[in-house]
Amino acid sequence: MSGSITGRARERGIIDFRAWQIRDFTKNKQKQTDDYPYGGGRGCVMYAQPLADCRRAVCDSAGRESIHTICLSPAGRPFTQDIAKRLSREHDRIILVCGHYEGIDERFIDACVDEEISLGDFVLTGGEIPALAVADAVFRLVPGVLPDEECVTDESHWDGLLEHPQYTRPELWEGRAVPELLLSGHHLNIKKWRRAMSLLRTRARRPDMFERLSLSDEDLKLLREFGS
Ligand SMILES: C[S@@+](CC[C@H](N)C(=O)[O-])C[C@H]1O[C@@H](n2cnc3c(N)ncnc32)[C@H](O)[C@@H]1O
Asked: Under a CB-based contact definition with an 8 Å cutoff, are residues 11 and 4 in contact?
């Protein structure tokens, strides 16, 4: 997070982030943050109290009554570019709560969490990687983090499409050539080719996304022309 694009944006004061240690908010000598689950079963569940106290401290440090709080959970809503857009548009601060072990006492979630987000249909050992992924996806939408707006709007998932394939030098690599049209310098034809490749790639790889598109007459023409 401190490296590369986000690191530079932080240095320039465009974004900021901070990790908070839940153990600092425990009220027991051992700084224990979890306990056995009521009802039996394996593993441990994170206490509500240190999480709620930590959240309060984060809000107080920002001089806010409340800050939009997201809990990372495999049982949450699957994360999408649309959620990233909404978060970057509607919130100037976000708290990302990372679970561990068997998860978090549901009463903390009921009392303090605004939404639960999942990174996908798989289970990780902790919420840190999903939190980094959500933060990164939101940060790059903050104006000024990327050099220009097209970096964001041209990419996969911005408008329900996957991006067209990309190529760079050399023109011929291990017997594989760059599509000739990309070398033509004909901007309109290149634009059409890219749109066609986006449509075809989305249809082939993500029929669920393709079904949701409203295709223009021009798109249908491109599909006929390039589809075969
Ligand atoms: C081992 S998981 C807990 C899984 C939980 N017992 C369940 O079955 O839903 C521990 C923590 O990792 C994080 N985590 C794991 N998989 C995740 C995913 N796909 N998306 C978001 N967070 C995830 C959550 O913060 C979760 O509380």
From this structure: no
